[in-house]
Amino acid sequence: MRSFKVFCLILGSSAFFSGMGLTMVALTHWKLIVPLSIVISGFGIYEAIFMSVALDLLCCCISLFLLWKNSQVKEGIKNDHKFLVLLVLPLIVGTICGLMLFQQYIEAVEKRLRKNGSYILMFFAIIFFAKGIRYRRNHKKKQKKKDQGKKEKIASDLMLQKDDLELKKIETNNTKSMKKTKMINNPDKSFQIDHNEIGDTAELSSSEEDNSIHKDKNEDLGQKEKSESTLNVQTKIPKEHGEDQLFGPFKLKRDYNSSKFKILLGFFGVAFFASGMFGGFLSFGPGLFLSILFIVFFDYRPLVGSFLGNSYMFIIEFICLIFFFIFLTIDYSFLIKYLLTLVPFSICGTLFGAYIGTKFDTEKIFYFVSLVFWVGFGLALGGESLH
Fold it and tell me: Which stretches does UniProt call biased (Basic and acidic residues) (predicted)?
């Protein structure tokens, strides 16, 4: 066991960065706290996992409270409550199944972490860096489509303005001809009418009727052209997240009775069962995976994905905590000193992550999390060299 000062310095900073990652991308404390506490501080696997679970539960509560106050979160999930609640059942069943395997294989996991804990952190660092690059490429493609839609809209608006000007010219000409007709139809009293003038008047009245008919036709054509051009603009401009689509890649509407939607519901049920089983097997929260799943397949914004990832991660971690108290024998009086030391660091990181999470875009968040893991990798290598 390393000295308490070394623990505070290394694990405290790790708890701070883990708290930031938890708020921004639903990153569990497990990925930093468990490898570093085993490699550097010499904790056992059960003690290290218990600390990560306790910190996750505490910071999840704070993160959910802060994110729920954001209007983007409330607006993002207002139409999906039924679907999101249905996913809880396979998640719970998977977590319980994973916990049944926990005690059988966790010692092998501990040996692997003691040997290669630092390289696991390097693996996570590379993964997040790759996610940042991939997100940047996809964002550029979406931006190009959006810019193209805006250009098409501007072009259609110019066409509409041109049509309006032509209609106004026709209306002006019709108004002038109508004024001339009124002057002829309302002569002075001293004016004597002969047959030639009557013929002229009849011709003018017939021309007035033709002009009015021509005007009505032009107005109908103008309205038709406006509606067609508006329809074209609406179909060409790419839609933003939200109102009529749920799954981004599949463009499916929120129709719970459709067969395609039920198939995808089954797919997500299997994915959540696997996530719960994996989370129970290692006693950690796969909030990051679930957050990315929501962002990619649901077109949710990063804050909404983080909120949902934290929500489901809280459920998994709470079940794991109950399992620890009932089935495992841990010296909690020994751990309380170290756990209370990490709590302030983790809470500060959570609050700071909630602040900068609204300032950073998704690409920067991925790069930042990658940087955190690179720092953890360096610390783990330093700890191994001291053995």
Answer: 211-228
Band of pLDDT at residue 359, cut at 50, 70 and 90? confident
CA–CA dist 287, 275 (Å, integer): 9
Query: What CA–CA distance (Å, rounded) separates 267 from 301?
Result: 21
Closest CA to 38 of 126, 123, 124, 109: 109
Boundary (domain end) residue, out of 236, 271, 302: 236
What is the distance between the alpha carbons of residues 68 and 221, in angstroms, rounded to a whole number?
Answer: 50
Question: How many structural domains comprise the chain?
Answer: 2
**What would the two tokens of residue 294 be?**
């929501």
81: amino acid identity, one letter: H
- Look at residue 14 and tell me if it is in a domain: yes
For residue 231 the two structure tokens come to 């329809």
Q: Is residue 335 part of a domain?
A: yes
Same domain, 179 and 128: no
Residue position matching structure tokens 């501007």: 154
Per-residue pLDDT tens for 125-139? Answer: 888 788 788 878 877
Within-domain flag for 351: yes
Q: Are residues 25 and 115 in the same domain?
A: yes
Average model confidence (pLDDT) across the chain: 75
CATH of the domain at 227: 1.10.287
Q: Which of 50, 59, 68, 65 shows the shortest CA–CA distance to 345?
A: 59
Together in a domain, 134 and 273: yes
How confident is the model over 225-275, as pLDDT tens digits? Answer: 544 444 444 433 344 444 344 455 555 666 667 777 778 778 888 989 999
3 state DSSP class of 292: helix
**Stretch (H or E) spanning 235:** helix 195-236
* Residue range(s) defining the domain that contains residue 52: 4-147+248-385
pTM (two decimals): 0.67
Separation of alpha carbons 168 and 148, rounded Å: 31
Backbone φ and ψ for 247, nearest 5 degrees, come out as: -100, 115
Helix (H, G, I), strand (E, B) or coil at 241: coil
